Amino acid sequence: MNKEQKASKIRTKTVITSHANADFDALASMVAASKIYPDSTLIFPGSQEKNLRNFFIQSTTYLFNFKAFKDIDPSSVELLVVCDTRQKARIPHVRPLLDNPNLRVHLYDHHPDTDDDLVAEKSIVREWGSTTTIITSLIMEQHGTLTSEEATLLGLGIYEDTGSFGFNTTTPHDFNAAGWLKSQGMDIEVIKDLLSHELSAQQITNLGELLQNANNYDIHGIEILITEISTDKFVPDFALLVHKLMDMEDIKVVFALGRMGDRIHVIARSKNPDVNVGKICSTMGGGGHEVAASATVKDKTLAEVRDDLFALLYSQINPQIIVKGLMSGPPVTIEGNKTVDDSVELMTRYGLKDLPVVEKETMHCIGIMGHAIADKAASHGLGGMPLSEYMSQKFDTVTAGTDLYTVMEIILGNRQRMLPVLEDNNIIGVITRTDLMNMLIEEPARIPDSLMPDRRREKNIASTVTNRLPQKMLDLLNVAGELGNKLGWEIYAVGGFVRDILLGRPNLDLDLVVEGDGIFFAKELVKKLGGRVKAHNKFKTAVVILENGQRVDVATARLEYYEYPAALPTVELSSIKMDLYRRDFTVNALALRLNPDRFGQLVDFFGAERDIRNKTIRVLHSLSFVEDPTRILRAIRFERRFDFQIGGQTMRLVKNALNLKLFSKLSGTRVMHELQLIVSEEDPLACLNRMQELGIMEAIHPLLKLHKERIQVLIELAKVHNWYKLLYLEQSVEPWKLYFLGMTMGIKNTQIKQVTDRFHFTQREEREFLQLREMIHEALIQLMSWREGKSKLSRLYSILHPLPVEGVLFLMGKSRKEHIRRNISQYLARLRDMEIEITGNDLHELGIEPGPIYSTILEKIMAAKIDGQVETKKDELDMAQECYARESAKEDKADES
């Protein structure tokens, strides 16, 4: 976009829109929302309903000043208000706005929740007859007023979505809103005219085709009518034809499929409470209510959509009989006070992969123990631990009356292999993944696409990748993918790089995983792009350093296992799924396909995208912290960095690892590495406070407990560190040194060696750290005698200059006296980097013989410059001669005596 084009765009902070293929409720709720957001711009989402389009062209465009998305400048938009939907997929016309991580979103809707719902700052959802009713009630609460035209349009939205108050979804709120709109000048005659539908000759022909193609199906005892129509042109008022069809044939449940061009339109209506058409259409990518819903499907044939529909109908209708017949009971259970070894023995005896855990002497289910986790725990020497420590406490349950589709969502969608069936909170049976798959093999209907594991795992985000990465990075990803194709290997970008694409955060630290030979791939990549390779044959990994300095870590797809708690990993070859499974948290267990034929497909085996949406840090398995306790520190780092929360089950495992004192088994080098990363975060204090709250600081070493005084100093250190960074001085700070001084403040010199030994300091590192503490102590004593306005600035310089910058900042943060802090800041900002113009060469040219006298002279000149006694190089040379003369006189006098 050139400057002139951008200048012609409308700049607006607030945009209001609704779902594509808008109906009257969508249109009316947008206009209603504009009364709450008066300085907003209305973006019309487009409609294919003929009567709505005509009304929009003739009246709404003029009256309410709607705009097209192309007319606005997206960069100016700060708030997006969405009406009559919450689903991201239903607002493609404003998709570019959603790529802005700082965009605020407000939602107004009356439809049920879906997995595709937007995350919003404000969400008002009420199960009323129309969204217009919801927003009208808010206008009423604010004592707003409407024009007659506005009241009529809002009334049109309510009348249409409630079937002129004839649908079962109509509520008293809809009547109340309509009554108020009437008082504002709503014209019922206009509404009547717009909602009265006289069928055209073409519509009568289409209705005849629907009647001719209609077939009744008995699905688990409920009669369903399914009909379809196929045409290259759009069929106006398709929903109206379905209403006419129901009235003519007295149909209770109907699904009408219409192929119109390259899309399949689905209209569903139900008068049977056992058939929730809203749920079915939502699964197909649409939405609606239990009694009325619709969906639009792209990239599928009519036959494929029909097959998907049958699958959903068979899985949902009359489910009670199926679930009762599917479950196994009574179940084999184990009491929660038993050990891990007990569960292994019981599962081995009965050939079970999972075991329900119940409270002692009851059948109240409190957890699920997996055979794989139990075996792994036993191999770590934890077989004697109570089951409650490692069982999964976060699990779904069903009752005998739960529909089969819910069972499929839990077992196939959420990957819960065993599903307890409860009655009065007691377990009466279980449904396993094997039970479900055996049933589905026997059923003529197949599993819905939305629940196929591969479909759930691989959503294509190529457009997001393209929009959020710089061109140089995109070029690199494309080269890697093309090279993978040439070698016959799958190539993936993995981990935090992919996570941060979804979060909209900058991250150019690229990690690649190769389903092949990672080291060979790295060498071939360098042949194409230039640079060099550092290979690590033991771990089957390599680091590519390109000519522009870009680093790319390349790994062979592998599975890591740990021989004992807190050990380093042993590496075996494996697939991408196993490679991701070895990672620390679900949010980091993501992969992005790079091969050209599937570029941008997101591989998500463990629900990472859901956890990112829910802002949750969750481990992949119960022994994650047992195998590597440093993951606890990483969990805190990610939690604070992204403003997430450690999940409940994961937090329980954190506390279990601390109770087992696993930090004591970690090498000090690994702990120090994680601490260095933590204090390099944008808000290290939040991480340190969280560590103290959980008891981690004491677990690392009892002397590191963050008492009140230490916390206060750490708060000040964070402030001075941020202040120093804003100075953009050449000398950078090593954050770990600064914060380690704060964390060890108050520890006696006789005890500090315990801490340095815990972190495996080398003799040199320990000596330097102890020396730094001593220098800080001495400088602090001297600072106490320095008086602002009375003592020379050169004295301040001589006190502070011997200290490394971390020591100076520590003094500044620790001091409670404002004048000392002010003078230290003056030293850092003005004096520390001050230089004199003359050097030893100049002294040599003055005829002064080299020796210790050089340092004496240069130091005195520096002091004089700081105190303003010399300004030019000539002044410095003159002073050098004077100093030399005085020093020489002193030496002569000394020789005479």
TrEMBL record:
Alphabetical UniProt keywords: CBS domain, Magnesium, Metal-binding, Nucleotide-binding, Nucleotidyltransferase, RNA-binding, Transferase, tRNA processing, tRNA-binding
Cofactor: Mg(2+)
Superkingdom of the source species: Bacteria
GO MF annotations, alphabetized: metal ion binding; nucleotide binding; nucleotidyltransferase activity; tRNA binding
An individual GO BP term: tRNA processing
Gene3D superfamilies: 3.10.310.30, Beta Polymerase, domain 2 (3.30.460.10), CBS-domain (3.10.580.10), cca-adding enzyme, domain 2 (1.10.3090.10), inorganic pyrophosphatase (n-terminal core) (3.90.1640.10)
Signal peptide (UniProt feature, chain positions): none
Domain (CBS): residue spans on this chain: 391-450
Family recorded in the similarity comment: Belongs to the tRNA nucleotidyltransferase/poly(A) polymerase family.
Protein name, UniProt field: Polynucleotide adenylyltransferase region
Organism phylogeny: Bacteria, Pseudomonadati, Thermodesulfobacteriota, Desulfovibrionia, Desulfovibrionales
